[in-house]
Write a structure and sequence with these properties.
The complex is a heterodimer of chains A (399) and B (250).
Chain A lengths: L11 H14 L1 H39 L3 E6 L14 H6 L4 E9 L4 E2 L13 E5 L3 H5 L3 E4 L11 E4 L1 H7 L9 E4 L3 E8 L11 E5 H7 L8 E6 L4 H12 L7 E4 L1 H44 L1 H9 L4 H38 L7 H28 L2 H5 L3
Parallel strand pairs in A: 4-9, 6-8
Antiparallel strand pairs in A: 1-10, 1-11, 2-4, 2-10, 3-7, 5-8, 6-9, 7-8
Chain B lengths: L19 E12 L5 E12 L3 E5 L6 H8 L7 E6 L2 E2 L5 H11 E4 L11 H6 L9 H14 L15 H13 L5 E5 L7 H16 L4 E5 L2 H6 L2 E6 L2 E7 L8
Parallel strand pairs in B: 3-8, 3-9, 6-7, 7-8
Antiparallel strand pairs in B: 1-2, 1-4, 4-5, 9-10
Helix pairs in contact in B: 4-5, 5-6
The chains are: A alpha+beta (399), B alpha/beta (250).
């Protein structure tokens, strides 16, 4: 008997070429079946990218606004008093050591209208509040135009509008000397604030000084809300002593919140939504995988002749299965690359439109590609095994 | 292929004879079923290097089964098969693949050319599973295409050529590795008479250059053109004309 046979071999480059044949000759079908993976991966990358970009924006926002602000309100509910804080609570709070800034707000019963011709009651949801002059600084807010209430305003009939209030009253420029009808008197608008992220209720308010409120609105000056800026390191300690400081008799009637918690809660809600979208992306990916498997199974049936030929040319069962597995993998990889590119582009475009920093986490890209590859292997495995099992004699009888 | 001249003229060729490329001894193939189908019954056949043999028979005579057994695409139920000096029974499936990749060339009625590939690359696929690098295979493919008179079609997409040209590409693909034997299954079956004639002439020319070729056909006219005819009927060899004496084989 002769020397032993050298085994059949398929060079890696030829393996690649063989795996590309199906994709090259059936381009439209390949593109369509790869599209499922593109959409799935794009969804996952996009969701992760957008969530990361918005989170980074939120963190920047929190950083800027500070997490060291507390908001004190009179508690509300059955059996709880008037919904007002004690008159001297602002002074009491300012005596707490680590407290850096204190500013109070007091609800008035007045309403504000664009002119005296607007029927009473059509307030547009705008409230009138008496505030301390250092409120803007305590909230770290900014003026959109004009100036905030200062000591010089004294008890003059001047008002500062929140951003939404200004829009509803049709006041475009706080420095333009516009007058509004407030508490049966004309008030001059001296400034319009920018949106306040940590106290959105002020966006819908017209603000006057305590002395003005006392002079023109017959307001008693009892605070309803107090904003406290404290040393960030002692924020928890401050928070715990505030109720008793504000209202030693019934600390239970005092509610202390941290506005930045709301933003963090929003972030947590966003996270839940992100997870939902990620799940949808995973479903799309799964459907994409099924699409590839389907196309591969059809391809194996259609290409029985080719399989028979390859076996006749010396391909082993392994060579055949690797060819089809390779085809599925290439399809999934191209889909994955397309998906990462598309998801990245969507993220970049949306982040750009929102003015966020574009952040596509590496885990999204690596995870996306990894998921595509795994889907490719799983989707290709069964068709590849089927292709390898095709009997060469049967296959060559095809056509 | 360079068949060595033989001094002696044995009437029966031992499987181990260096010049024997194909030896079948009492080969049967039975497909299970009720009743079982005996596709091949006790076939003895030896083909020596340099021969041009036609295996002829009507539909259902077992020609294709015999081709698949000889081509190691299927295993015999009993009997021994030796191809290129290798006893097929002793080989694993992987080894049979290897045997096909280096020692056997196939030509099919349906050509089986790969769409989207040039004639040159289709021909170089003849050695795809030997692990030889593509550029090396392409050099050999050029020579093979030249041999079948298709050098001018090298860069054309193979499946877009005419029927006769496609079959010549397929023949070049079978030829490329200089296999010990080429098995052609109804090579003119899908061709018009003119192209069929060209292919028969090409087969004769290649044989004249020393290539061992077995042509399977149902067409007695074509079969009669070849020096040796083996007639099959109901799975048995009913006639074997070794019209060329072994010593005359060049």
């Amino acid at each position: 008997m002769k020397a032993s046979l050298e085994p059949s071999r398929l060079a890696p480059a030829d393996m690649m070429r063989a795996s590309l044949i199906g994709l090259r000759t059936r381009r439209l079908r390949s593109v369509l079946s790869g599209l499922g993976i593109v959409i799935g991966i794009a969804a996952m990358v996009g969701v992760l990218g957008l969530s990361e970009s918005s989170k980074s924006d939120l963190l920047a926002q929190l950083d800027q606004l500070g997490t060291n602000m507390l908001r004190i309100e009179a508690g509300s509910g059955i059996g709880i008093g008037t919904g007002e804080l004690p008159e001297d609570s602002t002074a009491m709070v300012s005596r707490v050591g680590p407290v850096e800034q204190v500013a109070s707000i007091s609800e008035t019963e007045a309403s504000v209208y664009r002119t005296d011709l607007v029927p009473e009651g059509q307030t547009g949801g705008i409230t009138v509040k008496a505030v301390d002059a250092n409120l803007l600084a305590t909230l770290q807010g900014q003026m959109d135009s004009g100036i905030f209430l200062d000591e010089a305003a004294g008890d003059l009939p001047v008002v500062v509008l929140g951003s939404v209030a200004a829009e509803r009253l049709g006041v475009a420029d706080g420095a333009g000397g516009t007058v509004v009808w407030l508490g049966d008197k004309w008030f001059s608008v001296v400034g319009v604030m920018e949106t306040l992220d940590l106290s959105p209720d002020l966006d819908r308010a017209a603000l006057v000084s305590y002395s003005t409120a006392e002079e023109f609105l017959d307001h008693d000056g009892v605070p309803s809300t107090i904003y406290v800026r404290s040393d960030p390191d002692d924020i928890d300690a401050v928070r715990s002593v505030l109720p008793a400081t504000v209202n030693p008799e019934s600390p239970d009637e005092v509610e202390v919140t941290r506005p930045s918690d709301a933003l963090e809660a929003k972030e947590a809600a966003d996270q839940a939504f992100t997870n939902l979208l990620l799940g949808l992306g995973a479903v799309a990916l799964l459907v994409g995988g099924v699409g590839i498997a389907n196309v591969m199974v059809i391809s194996v049936l259609e290409r029985r002749g080719e399989i028979g030929l390859r076996r006749a040319l010396g391909a082993t069962k392994g060579h055949i299965s690797i060819q089809f597995l390779g085809e599925s993998l290439i399809l999934a990889t191209l889909g994955g690359l397309g998906g990462v590119a598309l998801g990245g582009a969507v993220t970049a475009a949306y982040a750009w439109s929102q003015g966020w920093d574009v952040l596509i986490p590496a885990v999204a890209i690596i995870g996306g590609m990894g998921a595509a590859l795994i889907i490719g292997v799983i989707a290709g495995l069964y068709p590849a095994m089927r292709a390898a099992r095709v009997s060469p004699t049967e296959a060559l009888r095809t056509l | 292929m360079s068949p060595a001249a033989s001094a002696s003229t044995p009437t029966t060729v031992a499987p181990n004879d260096e010049r024997t490329v194909l030896a079948l001894s009492n080969v049967t193939k039975t497909y299970p079923g009720t009743p079982p189908v005996h596709a091949i019954r006790g076939v003895d056949l030896d083909i020596r290097s340099g021969e041009l043999v036609s295996i002829v028979g009507p539909s259902g005579s077992g020609k294709s089964t015999l081709l698949h057994i000889v081509g190691t695409l299927d295993r015999a139920t009993s009997g021994t098969v030796s191809v290129a000096g290798y006893d097929v029974d002793d080989l694993t499936d992987k080894q049979l693949s290897s045997l096909r990749s280096r020692h056997i060339g196939f030509v099919f009625q349906q050509f089986f050319l790969l769409a989207g590939e040039t004639a040159l690359d289709n021909v170089s696929d003849g050695l795809l599973y030997t692990g030889m690098p593509l550029n090396h295979r392409r050099v050999l493919a050029e020579q093979a295409l030249d041999q079948v008179g298709l050098s001018h079609r090298m860069g054309h997409e193979a499946t877009k050529l005419s029927g006769g040209e496609r079959q010549r590409v397929a023949i070049a693909r079978a030829l490329i590795g200089s296999p010990d034997i080429i098995l052609a299954d109804e090579p003119t079956g899908n061709l018009d008479s003119k192209s069929g004639e060209d292919v028969v002439r090409l087969i004769e020319d290649l044989n004249a250059d020393g290539t061992t070729i077995v042509v399977i056909t149902h067409d007695h006219e074509i079969a009669s053109r070849f020096p040796r005819q083996v007639s099959l009927l109901d799975g048995e060899v009913v006639e074997d004309t070794r019209s060329v004496e072994p010593e005359d084989l060049r």
